[in-house]
Amino acid sequence: MKKVLLYLFLSVFSYPLIAQAQVLMSGTINGHEWVDLGLSVMWATCNVGASRPSDYGGYYAWGETRPKSSYDWSNCFDCLDSKGRKWGTYKVGGQIQITPSSGHDTARENWGGTWRMPTDAEFGELCDKCEWTCATSRGGHNGYVVTGPNGNSIFLPAAGWRRGADSGGVGEFGGYWSSALGSSLSGRYLSFDKGYHSACYKSLRRDGLSVRPVTE
After folding, report:
1. Is 31 within a domain?
2. What is the distance between the alpha carbons of residues 94 and 170, in angstroms, rounded to a whole number?
3. Could you report the per-residue pLDDT of 63-103, keeping only the tens digit for each?
4. pLDDT at 215 > cutoff 80
5. In what order do the strands lie in the sheet with 214-215?
6. Mean pLDDT score across all residues of the chain
7. Whole-prediction pTM
8. CB distance 176 to 188 below 8 Å
9. Any domain includes 147
10. How far is Cα 50 from Cα 46, in angstroms, rounded to an integer?
11. How many domains does the chain have?
């Protein structure tokens, strides 16, 4: 009888803790949902500019906070000579990381709260510690389902890129900016195609790529 009472006591009083643990696996900040993948940060379920996880969302040059009709050196943030040769704030020998409070963090400026752009290391975690599964026609778009060590997952659509007024790689390629500078000309980003995924790539800062926010 004592064992039965002890079991009932533990069941009743441990239930709130179990329920709380389940709730903390996901949540919302400023109306945008996050998921705990079992990594060092929580990942948003949507791209900036998207209303559903499968939507492409907006395309942003590195350090910029709004989409635009053409992605060129002449209208690229921080470029001083319209040819990508001279830079203001972000350059080798200067600042090499976008901080959330800088006014140049695409995630923070669009979503507010504690949202921010991922770092290189956080993209590295996503590549090295998660299982990547190629998915076709998820909500009408191709991409990857990325499953964390705890079994939770997010979907990264293959939104392609923008350069000048042109687009490319839509449905085949995914490029997601990190907050890190790659060189004075480039930003670092997560890249994936049907056969690979890597956090080690650099793209010209003028290019329009996707942004997937994170939060602590």
Report:
1. yes
2. 34
3. 999 999 999 999 999 999 999 999 999 999 999 999 999 99
4. yes
5. 26-29, 32-35, 42-44, 214-215
6. 90
7. 0.88
8. no
9. yes
10. 6
11. 1
Residue 172 maps to a domain: yes
Q: Could you tell me the two tokens for 2?
A: 């004592």
Domain interval for residue 123 = 26-215
CB within 8 Å of 118: residues ≥ 6 apart: 41, 126, 176, 178, 179, 190, 212, 213, 214
Tokens in use for 175?
Answer: 């490029």
Q: CB-based contacts of 211: which residues, under 8 Å, 6+ apart?
A: 47, 48, 57, 58, 60, 106, 107, 117, 176, 177
SS (H, E, C) the chain: CHHHHHHHHHHHHHHHHHHHHHHCCEEEECCEEEECCCCCCEEECCCCCCCCCCCCCCCECCCCCCCCCCECHHHCCCECCCCCCCECCECCCCECECCHHHCCCHHHHHHCCCCECCCHHHHHHHHHCCEEEEEEEECCEEEEEEECCCCCEEEEECCCEEEECEEECCCCCEEEEEEEECCCCEEEEEEEECCEEEEEEEEECCCEEECCCEEC
- The answer to the question of residue 52 being in a domain is yes
Over the stretch 11-52, which tens digit does the pLDDT of each residue have?
A: 433 433 333 334 469 999 999 999 999 999 999 999 999 999
